[in-house]
Amino acid sequence: MSVTSVEPRSAPAPTGSRLELAGVSRWYGNVVAVNDVSMILGPGVTGLLGPNGAGKTTLLHMMAGFLAPSRGAVTLDGTPTWRNPEVYRRLGLVSEREAVHTFLTAYEFVLASARLHRLPDPAEATRRAIALVELEGAQSRRIGTYSKGMRQRARVAAALVHDPQVLLLDEPFNGMDPRQRLHMMDLLHRLGGAGRTILFSSHILEEVEQLSGTVQVMVAGRLAASGDFRTIRRLMTNRPHVFAVRSTDDRALAVALMAEASVTGVELGQAELTVRVSDYGAFTRVLPKVALARGIRVRQLVPEDESLESVFSYLVEA
Amino acid sequence: MSTVSWITARGLLGRRRFLLLFPLPVLLVLLAVLSRALGVDPNEWGPPVLVGLGLAVVLPVIALIVGTGVLGAEIDDGTVVHILTKPLPRWQIVLPKLAVAAGVTAVTVAVPLYVAGVLASSVRVGLALAAAASIGALAYCAFFLALSLVTRRPVLLGLVYVLIWEGLLGNVVSGTKVLSIQQYVIALADRFAPTELLATDVSVPVAAVMSTLIAVGFTALAVDRLRSFSVAGETS
Lengths: 318, 236
Prior knowledge:
The structure holds two protein chains of two kinds. Chain A is elongated and about 75 Å long. Chain A is built from ten helices and 14 strands. Chain A has a six-stranded mixed β-sheet, with helices on both faces. Chain A is α/β, with parallel strands linked by helices. Chain B is 77% helix and 0% strand. In chain B, helix 3 runs parallel beside helix 6 (123-150). Classes of the chains: A alpha/beta, B mainly alpha. The A-B interface holds A 26, 28, 33, 52-53, 57-58, 61, 64, 66-68, 82-83, 85-89, 91-93, 95, 97, 99-101, 103-104, 112-113, 115-118, 158-159 and B 3-4, 6-7, 10-11, 14-15, 77-79, 81-90, 227-231, 233-234, 236.
């Protein structure tokens, strides 16, 4: 397959578009979904990372003008996105819900979008958008017959048909196979490189890692971290880890481990050792050596609390 | 044909729900044909079939299915987002959808009513029923379309209006007739072709003014509600 044959149409605009959130909160009754989030999104690809239920979708809907902020303001180049259909000249949205007019073909679907945008040459814009997502081969089939990944690409084509400065995507990689995922990542990369402002949400660390240099991390409605991905990644890997260890002689192992610099605490339990560690890499290298030197066999080594939620909540505390 | 009305028409006619539109009009024509063939006095079968079934049931129920469907179905399955993420003033979305809804309803209801009216009385009565029903279709559709933007259960509320307000209360409490689209349609049809078959307490001016007010008012409400359309919040 050729992934680089089609380039986004025009050269990057000199400044690009700027999506700004200023002290944005959104609550439903007593439940606060988004809590005082401020950020500025400029050209390039930004990942919006956070566990499920962190408020990513609510935030995206406010950015896209589909939800009024309870407090604060969302503006695109200075104009509010709420109750302002004009922003859609510069903004495209790919929502998470897999909603498509299944009775249309992809070509009809994208063409309808082009017409609704009142583009000067809807047919050409449609051809270009479909080529961008590489859906030419299936464009005359009804969307109802598509796989999930193909539907997603049809939706992306429809959102890109007017060549928007800003593209918002909610969990765009959900349900895609690895090849489709790579292709979509490549597409977003190119768009970002061409000066578009791309924001995509994800609850999977690796997706964000591969795609974007800048991330905004949301946890429980708050913006927990924002900035360069590598810095945040380092914070994540350097956080204290907890392991559960079972061995032939837990007590002797505990004594030996306490001598190691990477270990900050050991707790001797009924059936296992709980080891607190400051350096993940150093500990996993040193444990076999220590055990071997003492003639202890390690039966089980389980990292505890490795869920994404705990990683994120660590970030909030940091 | 605008792109919005094209998508709306394809969505409406392409869904299986569209088949729901046919049984009632067919029943109306069948009853009329049967009564005529059996030689029943038109003054006996006319009012129950034309008014009781045609104007009180077929027209509002068809309008309910179509009127809540043109936008409500897209809101339900989320495809409405595609139309809303376009730089269109919201009236350019509501008006084409209302036009498709009123048009489809009018055709579906006016044709069987015309046939039944001709069988019961004359071509003139048939035409009057068809014309009045078309006006009623517009008012009903504007109301039901707005309903689909105001509540998540437009069909249920619409049914309550049709069955309880127009059907039940309209016969018991005469005052409610002033706020009943069905009565406007009867008054207008009777004005177009005065006949014994149609009777109502609502005056023609009231019917004309109220039909216009309902059509315009609920359309304006729908445009405003669509301007502030919120995607339902994730609860996960």
